[in-house]
Design a protein that fits this description.
6 helices; 80% helix; 165 residues
Length: 165
C-alpha cells in the first residue's frame, strides 16, 4: 500500500472510533442473550451508562494503539499493535451494538477522549518501542485491575440485594 492508502485507512479507523460505525471481525459474544433479557427503564438507563463508559475505554484503546503503531520502529511491534487495534475495534463495535440495543448513544465527548489518548500514545511511542510496550503492558494491567474491582463490587451489591429480598 502507498503512504496515502495507509493514511486513508488510519483516518477511517479514527473516524469510526470517534463517530461510530466500527466493524467487528468476530461475532458479538452473547448475541443470542441480549434480545432475551428484559430490563425496566431504570435498569436499561444504568446498563447504558455502564456500557457508554466501556465504549469510551475502547475509543481510548483504539487511539492508543493507533498512535503507537504509527511511530513504532520495529515492524513486529507495528504488527502486534495493528492486531491489538483490530481486537479493540471488535470491542468497540460490540459496545456500539449493545448501546443501540439499549436505545442509547455513545459519549458526546468521544472526539476529546480519542485526541487525548492519541496524544498520550504518541508520546509513549516517540519515547521508543521499549517505552511503548511498557506503556501497553501497564495500561492492560490497570484495566484488568479495574475490571476485577468492578466485578467484586457488582457481586457484593447482588449479594446485598439478595439478602434484602
Amino acid at each position: 500500500m502507498s503512504p496515502i492508502d495507509r493514511l486513508i485507512i488510519e483516518f477511517d479507523t479514527a473516524l469510526r472510533s470517534v463517530v461510530g460505525g466500527a466493524n467487528a471481525q468476530r461475532p458479538t459474544p452473547g448475541a443470542e442473550l441480549s434480545s432475551k433479557s428484559v430490563l425496566d427503564a431504570q435498569e436499561r438507563k444504568h446498563a447504558a451508562g455502564l456500557m457508554r463508559v466501556n465504549h469510551v475505554g475502547e475509543v481510548c484503546a483504539q487511539a492508543l494503539y493507533q498512535s503507537q503503531k504509527l511511530v513504532a520502529r520495529n515492524p513486529e511491534i507495528q504488527a502486534m499493535l495493528s492486531h491489538s487495534g483490530q481486537e479493540e475495534m471488535d470491542h468497540l463495535a460490540w459496545c456500539e451494538t449493545r448501546l443501540q440495543e439499549l436505545g442509547s448513544h455513545t459519549s458526546y465527548l468521544n472526539p476529546f477522549w480519542y485526541a487525548g489518548s492519541f496524544a498520550i500514545g504518541l508520546a509513549a511511542g516517540l519515547a521508543g518501542d521499549k517505552w511503548s510496550l511498557g506503556f501497553v503492558a501497564e495500561t492492560e494491567k490497570q484495566v484488568e485491575k479495574s475490571s476485577r474491582e468492578s466485578s467484586r463490587k457488582i457481586t457484593q451489591r447482588r449479594l446485598s440485594l439478595a439478602r434484602n429480598c
